[in-house]
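Tokenised fold entry reproduced for absentees:

. . .
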Amino acid sequence: MSTSPARRPLPHGPLADGRVSVFTAGEACRKCYSCVRSCPTKAIVVRAGQADVDPDRCISCGQCVLMCSQSAKRVRSSLEEVRGLLASGRPCHAMIAPSFPAAFIDMEPGRLAGAVAACGFRTVHEVAFGADLVSHAYHRRYAAIAPDQPFVISTPCPAVVSCVEKIYPELVPHLADVCSPMEAMARVVRRLAAGPAGAGRAGAGHTSTAAVAGPESARPAVVFIGPCVGKKDEARRTDTVDAVLTFDELTELFAASGVDPAAAAPRPFDPPTAGLGRIYPVTGGLLKSAGIASDVMESPVLIVEGSDRVMELLDVLGRLVREGKPVRTRLFDLLFCDGCIAGPAMPNDLSFYERKKYVVGYIDREPRYLGVEEWAAANTRWLDLDLSVSFTPMAVAEPPVPEEDIRAILARTGKVRPEDELNCRACGYASCRDKAIAVHRGIAEVEMCLPYLISRLEDAISSIKENQERLIQAEKLASMGQMAAGIAHEINNPLGVVLMYAHLLQEELGDGAPPRAREDAERIAREAARTRTIVQGILNFAREEKVDRRPTDINALLGDSLAGARSLDAEGRIRVETDLDASMPSFRVDPRQLRQVFDNVIRNAIEVMPGGGTLGVVSRGLAGAFTVQVTDTGPGIPEDLLPKLFTPFVTTKPVGRGTGLGLSVCYGIVKMHGGSITASNRPGGGACFEITIREPAERAT
């Protein structure tokens, strides 16, 4: 058994009757969308945050399985199906893909064949012989394609074939009508299993009639073993291969069968013996074994490997065919992986070059033919085998998406202008428009947009911070209110006594008292009265009055406050500018308390403009809420006071001109209404107070 560096084994699941061999284990999916990014045909459907596989677009290339670090994308296992075949009493035959030397690097080919046979297989063959047959067919048909003939796309790779059938149906007529090496070898095995009657037939077609005649228990079972996930789907679409095991599943079969590969008796692979078909897993293997020149400067043949490059080429070819334009290249040899040695079910982490070294090393050790003609001369008995195959377009019709729907979906993630479309591909789609189209078709979700999610997260964090600050402020004010209320009650009684005796003292002094004595008595009374005002403000701040809501015309309430404030501007130096929302309906508020808020804010605005200025009052009705803005052209609010402006005893007025409780009381009233009050400095100078109140109940009409 191989002791090479272990790669994360491909996770498996039960083989169901699904139309593709890859599925999603929902409990492991973590919304990373790596499968969407890696899927060349965008066959991943994201619903409710879960990425499932769309069988209509999936080509079973296995890219999503390799990319999923959470093992949420899995390959449907055929292990139990094969164990059932081995236990059924039917003759079972194994075929091993030519990439096996790169998969089991510490195991001699003969010992691998012996271990597979020890599991219960009657014969063990190299699929490389089927590759020889396919190469001979390509040599005869496509070694010299005339310039006026249609171009041809090779068909050994099941992912390429499925991609053409499902995504580029216009290219189906250009698929080579030659079956894959797996299918070719299966037809060879079935002819061998049929005995002399089958061996003498001119063409086996998809199956040999002699091979399948008789009861099902006597029908031979053919199992393919290799690194390709797509072969599972190919096998289900044919009737010559009963099951497909990946190399990972073969290792599991050894364990389930109690077979130790290291101790298995070596044996040669069963004939017929492979030739240059063993080079198929590496770049250009088909053309090399078929004797087709692929000179980059002169040959009309192009080798393309890797999902991105293959998809790019197919996209170009599809467009050229639809537009009726010529294609200079005559033969395209395509593989979705970088050679079959890079298949998704290779059981080690070796580099491409190391794997190629093991495959080439195996070829060099074995006797081989010098060319395709020499091979054909030695294998004439197999040249009449029918290798034909046909393909069917299976594309799902997708109607175009209206432009207005695309713009509406883009707008939901803040992409209103073309420059808002970042095309970052984090969602897995090449552009924001492609993703919007996928959302419209129900295979993607708006929330897959990473910049949109980051923006929402930033807004949420900002909202949390703001709410935390408000909560801290509210708790601080509540604590201060409780303490202030207690202090105010204690001060109120002795303060009343001081004020009473100050007035008595003024009466006793009369007009004949010395001026200094009268001034002292008046100062005592005046300061005691000011102290009483402060104490009353503290009590108002601490008192939690019930909000008596009633339908109220907010604009009328503002008008009353402005009318009452005219006495503060006796000289008419303040210009009042109003912009009141005439369509604003009435709102259920406490008019007495809200009038106190408006009076306080408007009075403060006038008092900070003793030399004159502009007072602005704006009202706006919203959905179930209203906003009032009061602005001035005064000196503004010192930046160090902004965070604590609504804290008791914080004021911008000189000593003796204010208590610092007015805005605190306003803050409490607005909060009891379930609203907010904020203060800021205007860019052009002055301050702006904004009051927003939302109705908790139905709006009165």
